What we know:
A hairpin with a 2-residue loop joins strand 1 and strand 2. Helix content is 23%, strand content 33%. By secondary structure, it is α+β, with helices and mostly antiparallel strands. It contains 2 helices and 6 strands. Strands 1, 2, 3, 4, 5 and 6 form a 6-stranded antiparallel beta sheet that branches. It is globular, with a radius of gyration of 13 Å.
Amino acid sequence: MHSNFIVQIGDVVTCVSDQSLQSKSYPEMESTFYSALKKNQEAGKDVKLTAIKGGKENASPEVVNFSGGKLVNVIWGEDKQGRGMVVKDISVDRKKKDER
């Protein structure tokens, strides 16, 4: 299933650019995510994420394109159930936005 939802606080990202984050250590997940983000940004593409909305236990993962961008700051955490990375906070770097 593909949708255009926006990653929100509480979502659990289980897969990044077809690379599973499940059962990886947090440093491995972070490395996988940022490596895919950098690679895709250099190619001018969004990163394809698979995420469980709201981290719900029985919810089906959905696919979203994530650009990240230089203005977006995402704080990640480790999902306690080992499913991937949880979005803890999202903010826009207003200083960088004002410089544009």
